[in-house]
Amino acid sequence: MPQRERSNSQNNGFSNTHEEFNTGYQKCSSTLSLINTLLLLVLGTTFVILPSRVVTLLLGNVTINDGAITIARMAGGVILAQGISCLVLLMIPSSSNPCLAIQTTRVAIAMQGVTGLVWVIIGLWNDEKRGSTKSAIISEFAEGDQSIGDTFGLLVFGSCVLFVACLALMLSLFPAEPRGSPSLIARNEAEARRTDMEEPLLSSREHTDGENPENNEHEPATTITDPSESRRTDEGGVTSRIRGTRRLLALAKPQTMYLYIGCLTLLVRLPFSLSIPHFVSTTLGALSQSEYERARREIMWLFLLGTIDACLDFWCIFWFGYANQRIVRGVRIDTFKSIMKQEIGYFDKTTSGELASRLNSDCGEMAGDLTWFFRFSIESVVRIIGITTYMLLRCPRLGACALSIIPVVAVVNKYYGSWLSKNARKVQDALAAANSVAQETFSCVRTVIAFASEEMEYNKYVEKVDEQYQLNVRQTYMTGIYYMFVSTFLINTVVQGSLLLYGSHLMQQDQLTGEVLLAFMLYQGQLQNEMLNLFQSYSSLIKSSGAGDKIFALLDRTPPPPGTGSTSVLQNEGRSGAIDGTSSQSPASAVSIRLKDVSFAYPTRLDHPVLTGLNLTIGTGQTVALVGASGCGKSTIVGLLQRFYDPISGEISINDTNIQQLDIKEHRRRIGVVTQDPTLFTGTILSNITYGLEDATMEEAIEAAKRANAHDFISSFPGGYDTEVGERGIQLSGGQKQRIAISRAIIRKPSLLLLDEATSALDAESEEIVQAALDTLLNENQGITTVIIAHRLSTVRNADMIAVVDKGQILESGSHEELMQQDSGCGYYKTMVQKSMGNKLVVP
Questions:
Q1: CATH second-level architecture of 240-556?
Q2: Among 60, 80, 564, 835, fewest CB within 10 Å belongs to which?
Q3: What are the structural domain ranges in the chain?
Q4: Angle of CA points 356, 361, 367, to nearest 5°
Q5: Number of CB atoms found within 10 A of residue 6's CB
């Protein structure tokens, strides 16, 4: 006891230390965030004012003097200073929001264009009002006066600064807690300690039923991983990325026609879109020279080109979006088809949540990003080519200055794309794990609530979500660094500052006009956007390849051959409507079964054999009852008869034909199954009774329900056979679900009937009703071979043969009378009967 108290005291001290450190961490994070924001806003203020003045000066109909050149150089220096400051900020620890500084920078830069435009427009409007031949705003600037344009521009800029400052302040004072922050670590540790004291670890639980790995509802999910895929993920080599990207692009091949139409529309649109900055510059140039008639013509062309561009943009988005939806549909259908082809062992190792994530999230992300990659990559490449051509034709030296940054950006994109590819795969795995936990919890929600385990399941889900959160935060931070370096520093800062410095120098030497320089500034902004769009397209393709690796691994997975033989010893017997669409009323023909030296272990536990050299012969039309302790292999035998698995060794024969030579689908259609916990699908009672039989009639469904003692309770519902059963039959009682399952087995007219503990989970009243239905089924279908797993003495007693299963082998077999005649010291079954409680067999 004292030791535990000391341990608790140490834990509390450790927690308090973490809390104190967390308080300091939050204050430091808030302070750094606020300092970063204020610094960027101060730089942004200077960055807005000076370049706008320079552009206004250069457009003015005045002589370029040393003062203008000095101001231009000051503007370039301020821009470079801002870029250097951005690089310095990279060294400061990230604040609560890694992108706050980045977004603030971008907002401040965006203010430059808004304020500059307001100054120019208001100044020119003031110029027209006064009838001056010289720009009013330039005149007032030279005279030291402040125009109405300056006043209005400063008001707009001040409002924007105030808004951004308030937003930054709120984000600084109320930061979102990062994944690795000390407070979260302390809370998780405290929660783990509390959980450890209150209840034992659930991760140490093992299967209690050795024959079926799905019996334990709370078994930790096991994720299947392809070793080759792991190597690709770990290496992330160029060859594997190229191979995956090529295969990803091949998905778009069936939609080539729609992509061609979208690309054609895109190419027709681009000349109209690219010409808009040219007309903007010529319009402002005409206004600055008081050529109002020419300015009006340019503005009319601007409106016309903008309208055409908008209409073509609609059709471009439509055709690419249409192709996108068709690709997503095709990939999801193919993926679902591939999942349904897998063997049962695959589902033992792969959780339903992971498969749902592959089908929904991965398919949508992979195919969706692929389509937009085609659009934005083609559009960006063509725009970059067009802008480059314009710049080099208008002024080769200034154009070379604007384009010199492209190789640097390409190198940065290469390394960032490699990292992004690896991280995208990890994100997909983390998302699948979180979805798996959520789906398992929702499907077993009643059990979770019954055991008051909501908090435990919540913590499990939070743990998985936090893994994805960590990866996404890391990606967000790296993306912020990328945009800060490439967009803010290289493109906005270095290129724009260089254009202003070098452009002012060329204008001083009368080798460039202000109108051309303005066009260059506008096109440089477009060039920046297209380069970023091109990289975003590449990033989307990289992330798509991360999701695509999982999908392709699933599509490429070839299950073990289910038996290629076309032999079907049951083909012309029983119901054939599910095969050829024609109903057949011919009675079912029983089969003989033989298991010879069968050994088996589940794929998830190959070192734990369930059956070892089992031998069992079932005659045609016989009813055989399998009894034995839980985990001895009874349900495994039923699974092998349905060929969910193939034995490791030995042979299973149906009518003297190896089961592996039978047509597997035909074989399963001739089997009727009623399990302990029957599965009902969302839909009506009628759809569940006729499940798998497209030709079944209403009369056949009613007849099957009557024989299963289900017709009366079905008729009592207002909707009758059209009553919705809810998800997994949640709207029905256990006995009602079991009788519907019996009806489903009866209507198939099976040749082999498998009853796996069909009444063990029911209350006494429901068990009596369901047992009566089973007795009726067995008595009326003497020609059906039946295998029963049961602990009800009356059911076992009436079987033609009773097989006692123990440790994966048949310990003894015979009729009830034969087994009861054995010596009490040797008869396992006799001992079970003697120890039975009422009508229940008790395993010794």
A1: Up-down Bundle (1.20)
A2: 564
A3: 2-173, 240-556, 577-834
A4: 125
A5: 10
- Residue 425 backbone phi and psi in degrees, to 5: -65, -40
- List, for residues 610-625, the tens digit of each pLDDT value: 888 888 888 888 888 8
Query: Does the structure show a pLDDT above 50 at 341?
Result: yes
Helical ranges in 595-733 per DSSP H? 634-641, 664-669, 685-689, 698-707, 711-715
Residues 6+ apart with CB under 8 A from 687: 681
**CB-CB contact of 575 with 748 (8 Å):** yes
Grouping H, G, I as helix, E, B as strand and the rest as coil, residue 106 is helix
DSSP annotation of 560: P
Helices (DSSP H) in 559-672: which residue ranges? 577-580, 634-641, 664-669
Structure tokens at 804: 């006692």
Residue 475 near residue 420 (C-beta atoms within 8 A): yes
> Are the C-beta atoms of 766 and 676 separated by less than 8 Å?
no
pTM of the model: 0.51
- Per-residue pLDDT of 676-716, as tens digits, reads 777 788 788 888 888 877 777 888 888 888 877 788 888 88
Beta-bridged to residue 596, according to DSSP, are 651
**CA gap 422, 236 in Å, rounded:** 6
In one letter, which amino acid is 129? K
**Distance in angstroms (rounded) separating the CA atoms of residues 181 and 466:** 12
- Condensed to tens digits (0 to 9), the pLDDT of residues 57-95 reads 444 433 444 444 444 445 445 444 545 544 444 444 444
| Angstrom distance (rounded) from CA 125 to CA 764 | 92
The pLDDT value given to residue 71: 47
The CA R_g of the chain, rounded to the nearest whole Å, is: 38
DSSP letter (8 states) at residue 589: -
CATH of 577-834, one of 3.40.50.300, 3.40.109.10, 2.60.40.2470, 3.30.565.10: 3.40.50.300
CA atoms within 13 A on the CB side of 554: 27
Strand-pair category, 671-674 with 752-756: parallel
Cβ-contact 804, 843 below 8 angstroms: no
Whether the CA torsion 467, 472, 478, 484 is positive or negative: it is negative
Write phi, then psi, for 837 (nearest 5 degrees). Answer: -110, 100
Look up residue 159 and give its two tokens. Answer: 């409002």
Maximum C-alpha span of the chain: 125
